[in-house]
Amino acid sequence: MKQHALLASLVVVAAPAAVWAAPKLPSQPPAAYSALLRCRGMTDQAARLACFDSAVAALDTATRNRELVVVDREQIRRTRRSLFGLDLPNFRLFGDDAEEADEVKTIEGVVASVGSDANARYIIRLKDGSTWRQMDGNTLGRGPRAGYKVVINRTMTGSYMMRVEGQPGIRVKRTV
């Protein structure tokens, strides 16, 4: 039963190959997970235990073969944060639009290094590995430097504004 409680508390996502082909997640859970849930309805204890043992083994095999991916909400939040700012198509990998409460709208980071392009606009790499390029011509009173704290917000229009050490923002775009 501990296995059942653990599995029930996890969010199950179908294998990536199936998700890429579909515009949204299927309405039915994967077969291996459904088989596990069907075991709950059995009244004979020995049959129920045998069903659970078989279904858990099938779920474990599907997970090991990467036919099924099991993630929890915290893993989804960390992944969404790491993808913040990247211009990716919406494959609804993390569920429907109803989960907008978990959508990342702001991140905080620390500057790892700073460069500039041919137009003297900043190229800022953060310690999390993301790289942001300045898109506007705004200037900062104090240019960004390694160790400076930044806050990046998604605007209502879908672009991104970066504030460096609390200064007025510059419009940026994530490149990596």
Task: Assign a percent range to the helix content.
Answer: 25-40%
As a percent range, the share of strand residues is 25-35%
| Class by alpha and beta content | alpha+beta
Which geometry do the CA atoms define? rod-shaped
Question: What secondary-structure arrangement, pairings included, does this model have?
Answer:
Layout lengths: L1 H7 L2 E4 L1 H6 L9 H8 L6 H20 L3 E4 L1 H11 L22 E11 L5 E5 L4 E4 L14 E6 L5 E5 L5 E5 L2
Antiparallel strand pairs: 1-2, 3-4, 3-6, 4-5, 5-8, 6-7, 7-8
Describe the fold and architecture.
By secondary structure, the chain is α+β, with helices and mostly antiparallel strands. The protein is 30% helix and 25% strand. The chain contains 5 helices and 8 strands, in the order αβαααβαββββββ. Helix 3 runs antiparallel to helix 4 (45-64). The protein starts with a helix and ends with a strand. The model is unreliable at 1-23 (pLDDT under 50).
Task: Provide a short characterization of the protein structure.
The chain is of the alpha+beta class and 176 residues long. It is built from five helices and eight strands, in the order αβαααβαββββββ.
Which structural traits does this protein have?
176 residues, disordered N terminus, two-stranded antiparallel sheet, 6-stranded antiparallel barrel, 5 helices, alpha+beta
